[in-house]
Specification:
The protein is an alpha/beta fold. The chain is 15% helix and 28% strand.
């Protein structure tokens, strides 16, 4: 539950992680009027993927099993709009929109938002819904109920998952006079059907869906049929060309993108991190000005707090093992960059102006961000799109020359650069 920007936050968090919530209550949310996200095609191609999970209507399918109660202020932002409820219902979910005529956007004094708590907590979070719909374009958001996306076929590209389990037990006929004496519908064989888009590895926890060995149906996935004898309570699946097959486990291959290690650059500051600069005034100055631009960008958003910094000579083994490292400086002078360089993309390391994210060669469960030139602190850097922090608009890598981004994009699943464009 949340109001205004908090209502937009409730929507975003709830539909990025739908299996953690039973309901979402956006109260006159600050959504639906953001012209910059309404025209994403006008943004650079490398920036568009970073906006996908911030665009509210992309998330309609994720509300399939979450009750969404919108509360609109009649004289506020949403007024009499039913656009979000209509979108959820069209995607198969449940939503209501309740209007409060005459109420201003800030209406807690007139009518306490606590009145919605009873409705919001009435229904428990579903654990094993028979139908799952999920939309994403990043492995950061990769799970819904008893299904997990383990790998995207193409990173930073929209993906969708639709899973339907029918146990074959028909709903009983309503006890109406019309149905008196009519036999109950017969039981039918159970079915399990999955359709995917841009997904190459997937885990289904069939036991969590209430499917037992005795009731195990065949699995039909994108036209491929897998026999019940190949399935189990937890089944891992991988796609090879056009065919899906059962595999032993979901452990990612060494050096591949996976949940928690998928980029882009902004992901490095979503868990404990440390800014590390060479023991030189210029590199420290670069770190300070770029970190300040993260906290206080030339947009409507700020981050409150101080970011941890250290000179490279003070970095400990514990820092490397437990934190993402933002490395400010050049390969020629920064000792950590010099140490890691042989295991990083050579063409990027040879460029004097780059910012890119990569698994730490000495701590693969953590990131490093190689940061050799200013990008966020550059005036008129065009890193603007709605209410998205500029650092969250950066892809996996950018090349910067004379303060301008000249090339940018996303690494492959193997953290390699895409083929050179002609």
């Amino acid at each position: 539950m949340g109001h205004s920007m908090g209502g937009a936050g409730a929507w975003m968090i709830g539909l990025h992680y739908p299996d953690r919530f039973g309901s979402i209550t956006p109260i006159d949310p600050a959504m639906g009027f953001d012209d910059e996200l309404a025209h994403v095609d006008e943004l650079p191609a490398w920036m568009r993927p970073q906006t996908v999970m911030f665009k509210q209507d992309n998330l309609f399918p994720n509300a399939r099993n979450v009750l969404v109660y919108l509360k609109n202020a009649g004289n506020g932002i949403q007024q009499d709009s039913t656009a979000f409820t209509d979108g959820i219902i069209a995607a198969g979910g449940f939503s209501t929109t309740e209007f409060f005529p005459g109420m201003p956007h800030y209406w807690a004094r007139e009518l306490s938002h606590a009145m919605f708590t009873g409705q919001a907590t009435m229904v428990p979070t579903p654990a094993s819904p028979p139908e799952i719909k999920f939309f994403t374009n990043t492995l950061r958001y990769n799970r819904a109920y008893w299904a997990t996306i383990d790998q995207l076929a193409a990173p930073a590209t929209t993906a969708s998952l639709h899973v339907t389990y029918d146990d074959g037990i028909p709903a009983p006929l309503p006890p109406t006079p019309f149905n008196r004496g009519r036999p109950q519908p017969p039981r039918t064989p159970p079915t399990l059907v999955v359709t995917t888009e841009n997904i190459s590895a997937l885990t289904l926890r069939l036991g969590d869906a209430g499917i037992t060995p005795a009731t195990m149906p065949p699995l039909t996935i994108d036209g491929s049929v897998i026999a019940p004898s190949e399935l189990s309570a937890t089944v891992h699946l991988a796609r090879t060309e056009s065919t899906w097959q059962v595999v032993a486990d979901a452990t990612p291959a060494p050096g591949t993108k996976h949940h928690g290690m998928q980029g882009p650059i902004g992901d490095a500051i979503t868990s404990p991190f440390l800014a590390v600069y060479r023991d030189a005034p210029a590199d420290k100055a670069l770190a300070i000005v770029e970190l300040d631009a993260i906290r206080n960008p030339a947009t409507r958003l700020v981050i409150h707090g101080e970011f941890p910094m250290k000179p490279a000579s003070s970095v400990t083994a514990e820092d490397i093992a437990t934190k993402n490292l933002l490395l400010f400086g050049s390969v020629a002078t920064h000792p950590l960059l010099r140490r890691y360089a042989p295991q990083l993309p050579a063409s990027l390391m040879a460029d004097p102006g780059v910012v890119f994210i990569h698994p730490n060669p000495e701590s693969p469960a953590h990131y490093i961000v190689v940061w050799t030139a200013p990008v966020l602190s550059v005036a008129d850097n065009t890193l603007r799109a709605g209410y998205i922090q500029p650092i969250n608009l950066l892809p996996d890598y950018v090349r910067v020359h004379d303060g301008a981004i000249t090339d940018a994009g996303h690494f492959s699943n193997m953290w390699s650069l895409p083929p050179a464009r002609p």
